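[agent] plan:
  1. take the single chain provided in the ticket
  2. run structure prediction with default settings
  3. attach structure tokens to the ticket
  4. add a short note for the reviewer (M.T.)
[agent] executing step 1
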Amino acid sequence: MRPLTSDDPRTIGEYRTLVRLGAGGMGVVYLARSSGGALAAVKVIRAEHAADPGFRARFRRESEAAGRVTGPWAVPVTGADTEAREPWLATAFVPGPSLAEAVAAEGPLPATTVRVLGARLAGALVAVHEAGLVHRDVKPGNVLLALDGPRLIDFGIARHEGATALTATDVVIGTPGYLAPEQASARPLGPACDIFSLGCVLVYAATGRRPFGQGTAAGVLFRTVHEEPDLDGLPSGLLPLVEACLAKDPADRPTARQVEELLTDAAPPDARSWAPPGLSALIAERSATALALPVPEPPTVVADPGPPGPSRRRVLTATATGAVLLTGGAAAALVAGRQRDRATSPRTLPTYTIGLHADLSGPGRAVGLAHERGIRLAVDDHNSRTDAGFRLALRTEDDAGDAARALHVANRLVADPDVLAVVGPTGDVAAAAVVSRYETARLAQVVVAAGSTTADSAGTKTLCVTRPFDDSLSIALIRYVVQVRPAERVVVVEDRADLRSSWSITDRFRDHPIEGIEVTVHTVDADTTTFAPAAHAAVAARADAVVYAGSSPGRGARCATALADAGFTGTGMSVGPVLAPAFLRGAGKAAEGWVFAQAYTDPTALPAAKAFTAAHRERFGAPPGRWSAEAYDAVGLTVRAARTTSAAEAERGGVAQRLFRTSHPGITRTLSFHSSTRQVRIETGMFLYRVQGGRARFLGPYTKV
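[agent] step 2 finished; step 3 output follows
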């Protein structure tokens, strides 16, 4: 729960707001009290989204759908106004934690609890399906735990069974890891997709793991469609039913009513025995806190006969927030949260810290050092400005590339009240445990270099990734063979040594037909070291281009060597981590001419980065390293977000959310994000390199080569 800001409404329909329960790109959820004294969770949609007729129609459908769902295990709708400038929906307030919170804090639930959980969630789905609806986002975060049982919430993507989606037909709606195969493949949906999701939720509740693992959305979706679930550790009494729920074919899954009946028969007769340890104490504490909240006085309206002045979003009274938002030019918002306790004079600016979470002494120390140097230059540049509004400091923490140490680093940075945002970690993967730690603290985490994450990126609100992940880079290769060096025949060598990476590349070439190009795929098993058969097949097919679909520099080098030995004279191509010294050394002359798609740029070749490159050489005696310029831009993005964050919302969480609504013209490219998904726009974030003379030479942004 967070205090109301001066911008928050004090009344919403019949409800008086008490505190904020959460906020995101779509809107704000408030804890409110009705005129009769009942507590409610009121979701208010931002006006910019409501201005879209399609979005308003979807929200209207959500409200109507949720209002028709009744039953003891579904949270009831208590009010709504779908036609307001900022439409809202109120539901009964449940003071219990979500299933995701409970498992993350205490571990897997007892088997008895899981059976009751499943039976009552199935009962909620019976009500949903009998109303002619499909929920489509059954996941642990949408299950709240009450003393008498769980409650299913958030019908924000519920729709009539068989209705036409208001989104594009190829958009997957839901949460990877809990989606049915038909959702992952954007096929028609029915109630059976909710049963598959329920099976995933039960696996998570009983084992603490998702049945289709962690990782990028593409990897999880691939395993959901093509692989069997990991059910190790699932209680034997639940195994047959969960296996039936997770059947690939929707027709093979039981109905919600059948699941409810089967689990009810196995559940204990005493409903009170369902609650996991510690739940009653937590609910009592949250209930007492909520009930003790006073209803705030309505805002005082002061008549102003003069001309209109700045809106309240731009000028905030010092008595309400402890700070003033300066307007005009490049003036900055004086970040308020911790400033309230500081005595600052007009000559003394507050100082806020950028935390660097990096590998500075382990196997990835070169990338970590590049981050540190880029950030130091950004901090110095900011502090040299006369209109900065606040000063920056840098705090570095070294995790040495070790997972356990990385979590300790996150704890130290979170505990520092001066840290406004964290850049990093700098390794190849943003680990779920680290992301969760920053998420819990509402501390912005700006990831610059990691090519993937094991976190549920769709469910996090403070993880800001400024690069396209590796599984998107093949888009740049497709444009190359279509427009730069047109090819008629492309062979994809799918390296099964890294199934997730190879599938994401192969999928884009094979499953998204390219007009005028014939694409064939040859697989190489993980347990073989020879690429000769695939190379000879490519030559026999008269391929103009061969794409190595994998992530290993060493195996990529074997592929390049096999192609050269087979007489291949076309273009070799790959993405991401394959372009490394091990590839160049291993392939030797066979690497010449290979084209790679990458998410980092070469600042020495960019006019916009000329001053940065000169400053880097002067200070550190060397040109910028890989990801150094991107780290510089990450600080610029954070500063710009802080400048445009109102003082009232400028605590850590406010800055974190402002990042996704900020467009920053950096030295590498303009950083901006999709408002609905909080994902970086990749159009300007992919670059092409060609191996020439034994080194990778920068060709430019993939759209301009």
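[agent] step 4 note for reviewer: The first strand starts at residue 11 and ends at 12.
[agent] ticket updated
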